[in-house]
Structure prediction request, 264 residues.
Amino acid sequence: MKIYTEEKKVKELLEKARKVYQKRDARIEGMTDESEETFYSCTLCQSFAPTHVCIITAERTGLCGAYNWLDGKASFEINPTGPNQPVPKKEVIDPVLGQWKGVNEFVFKASRQKLEKYNAYSIMVDPMTSCGCFECISAVLPMCNGIMVVNRDFTGMSPCGMKFTTLAGSVGGGAVTPGFVGHSKHYICSKKYIMAEGGIKRLVWMPKMLKEEMMDRLKKRGQEMGIPNLPEMIADETIGTTEDEILPFLTEKGHPALSLPSLF
Ligand code: SF4
Prediction:
């Protein structure tokens, strides 16, 4: 392992690493949760969040963004007794919430009987546990009938009234916290992103840096959903950092979240 501290070199390597991750993410694009019979677990974060279990599906990467389904599979093949175990889906309990019998059984055992179930695609109904090393947190914004997402690198205030660090302290630790969920950056543009509540159509606020980083995928996802100008409708900190400040912008843009069923 080599640790680089010179800014110029760090930036150079960061670009290189991003390209490798983009290539890796592209390999999984065509896969769906429906087409796979087995998901993979990750329990690495149990060292600090003892009840946390990541279930890595084809369309939902691990919370830290470091593991996707292919990584889980490869890791299990290299180390069959390691932290990434195959999880057979078994019967589908709820295809919209993202709940499977085999996943519930695994989570119950791996959380040492602390959790009986959770849902992979919902933020409101028993969302997946959040550990502490998630790349982003999504949180409900009741006034806007939508959801905001904030990434770890953004140090400013967010419209839910908390900065990332405060949010991470309240949501992390292996808890199931309805209204909040930790996840990777990649998951934001997945078709399964909070699908139970309307998916990315609910996304009303995100930091500008995150929006710019994800712009190509946001545009593509917007087009798939018939809203090609979706990225322009999502507010950021230059519009406001409170619900009061961003609501007029969302109304003016005709953001789809405002016409979706009420979250409560
Ligand atoms: S956040 Fe990452 S390291 Fe932690 S349990 Fe999930 S996939 Fe594993």
Q: What stands out?
A: The two ends are 49 Å apart (CA to CA). The longest strand covers residues 136-141. The chain is about 30% helix and 15% strand.
